[in-house]
Amino acid sequence: MKKIIILTGSELRHIFFRKFIALSDDIEVIHSYCEGLEQSLQTIVAAQHDNPLRTKHLMNREQSERDFFGLFLDNVPDNSRAMSLPKGAVHSPPYTVAIIESKPDLLIAYGCSIIREPLLSAFKGRFLNVHLGLSPYYRGSGTNYWPLVNNEPEYVGATFMYIDAGIDTGEIIHQIRARSVWGDTPSQIGNRLIVDMAYFYREIIRKFDVLERMTPLPRPDKVKVYKKKDFSEESVVTLYNNFANGLMERYLVEESERCRKAPIIRNPALMR
To answer: CB burial class (10 A; 0-12, 13-18, 19+) of residue 35?
Structure first.
């Protein structure tokens, strides 16, 4: 039985994740610390002017999450012992002390604030994170959005890593690439990936003691780093034009060759 604490957000995908993990008979969730939406992309965009296309995109994403996760969320028990807190509050002494004194086997992060001391040192080698994107190719914010804007669906995926003080720079444990089918929308691709991510995260927790240490990928010639401020109306136009002009249909024909040129790390312990 692995005892864990989850650090996450409070959007539907985060709720799905923590409830799914907590259903496992061999995983005990001591607590889930769920940060609020104060610094979410929706909140940032809503406060800006000239935002109709970004707003529609984010509304579509939210509706797609309801379509994917709503039935599950409405009908499964919540064993995740969720606690709501403001964004960033997990770093304040009452929470860090409580987390450390709970003595979990693992700390599990998905969609929370950037982690700082003393949690980094207290759980060195036992603090896991998932980056929704494929490191080292794409880093920062929106790392499964920008590959689709840039006509590079082969870089949509998830990277599981040991957390460190950097941004998406920890030692990689395992990676998965998004599964796509003909007719997909950007949100469908993203939500299918979140389902796959939750499954593999659960397996990483279960098999933590037998995970292999992996050789890092060669550093690509150019690492693409994006921030929330880069999310623009123009990028939304490009995204949906790409899909309307057959991006995913071309990708599915060329998938094997494209993926060969964008290798990812696969942990043998998770492939058995």
So the answer is: buried
* Number of domains the chain is built from: 1
Amino acid code (one letter) for 167: I
Say what the pLDDT of residue 237 is.
98
The 3-class SS string of the chain reads CEEEEEEECCCHHHHHHHHHHHCCCCEEEEEEEEECCCCCHHHHHHCCCCCHHHHHHHHHHHHHHHHHHHHHHHHCCCCCCEEEECCCHHHCHHHHHHHHHHCCCEEEEECCCCCCCCHHHHCCCCEEEEECCCCCCEEECCCCCHHHHCCCHHHCEEEEEECCCCCCCCCEEEEEECCCCCCCCHHHHHHHHHHHHHHHHHHHHHCHHHCCCCCCCCCCCCCEEECHHHCCHHHHHHHHHHHHCCHHHHHHHHHHHHHHCCCCCCCHHHCC
Mean pLDDT of residues grouped by 10 in the chain (272 residues)?
Answer: 96 97 97 90 86 94 96 97 93 92 97 88 94 92 96 97 78 97 96 98 97 92 90 97 97 97 96 78
Residue 41 is predicted with a pLDDT of 84
Domain that residue 174 falls in: 2-270
**Integer Cα distance of 249 and 17 in angstroms:** 30
Report the pLDDT value the prediction gives residue 133, as an integer from 0 to 100.
93
Q: Considering the entire predicted model, what is its pTM?
A: 0.95
State the CATH number of the domain containing residue 54: 3.40.50.170
